[in-house]
Write a structure and sequence with these properties.
The complex is a heterodimer of chains A (175) and B (196). By secondary structure, chain A is an alpha/beta fold. Helix content of chain A is 47%, strand content 19%. Classes of the chains: A alpha/beta (175), B alpha/beta (196). The A-B interface holds A 23-24, 47, 49-53, 55-69, 71, 85-86, 88-89, 92-95 and B 28, 48, 50-68, 85, 87-88, 90-91, 94-95, 181-182, 184-185, 188-189, 192-193.
Amino acid sequence: MATKKKTDWSKDVFKVLKNADVKQVAYVPDAGHTSLIKMAIADNAIKPVSLTSEQEGVAVLSGAWLGGEAGALLMQSSGVGNVINMLGMANECRFPLLMLVTMRGEWGEFNPWQVPMGQATEAVLEAAGVIVHRVDEPSEIAETVEAAARLAFEGGRMVAVLIGQRVVGFKDWTK
Amino acid sequence: MTARRKITLDRRKVVSRILKDRGELLLVTGLGAPTWDAASVEDNPNNFYLWGGMGGAVLTGLGLALAQPKRRVLVITGDGEMLMGVGGLATVAVQKPSNLAICIVDNQRYGETGMQETHTAHGVDLAAMAAGAGFQTTSTVYTSAELNTAIPVLYNEPGPVFVDVKITAVDQPMSLPPRDGPTLKHRFRENLLGSI
């Protein structure tokens, strides 16, 4: 299988976010989002918003939409547990919410403490009313984010793209 | 921890005085009594009321302030709501939105659930926490004269600005604004952006 490098899908996803007119990128860092966060910080038309907890991002992007700006929320699967109650606000008001979630606690995970939230991520998001697109093939990430962005911003829905740990790669703890 | 002073200010009068000459102000209110307070002054399309999302009022104000840098944005919320989202003070301070002001109506109680004491009743100082996060302009207001000084700060000082107004822990009649989320969102955006 020909696999693209991490930076390749990040560049393509960033283009998708730009085309979707995303102006605020809120994030709690994850290794899998490193390139995307760097590109967001380097882009003068995008306001990068570093958060102390992922739930802040749901509120920030709700406020952004009230003010006429689209945004995206980047987080690791462990952060999904932090956003659940705040999702009620986006759900009730039908604020568009585009979440890009890099997965931990699954493919090749070595840290047992990551496994519970990683395994619960998809079910918990769906229970909270979020539409979930999962992607495990690097070449399909950008088009999946593009579809999710349309569903979020034009369809007025909460949409999460889960990027599998198989794509993100697992940490090499021998280094 | 700050020295205790006598609390005499009434929340409805405080919020009414803050909003009296609001002009083009965009207002976000935290769930519970601050939403009822704002609605008791007037139901204004430039108001976005939170009926839930506890801990999210200041962050909602941040996203709005970043999207609308030429408009003044004020968040009025309670001490319990602020404490639940207190990390947001750090997030706001790092963003340094010059157009964002935060006003806490601080009765030192969880008013909607039976007036249980919040941490501010035990000396936790929200203005000091905001200052510690990096807010350059912070104050705690106990008196009518101090409120007179604080109101122009909320409107005019370069943000982010943080004012904690100590108010008496007295139940007020509920004053309910519209609560349908899409309705509140659409009217706010239509009024601000001209179309939705």
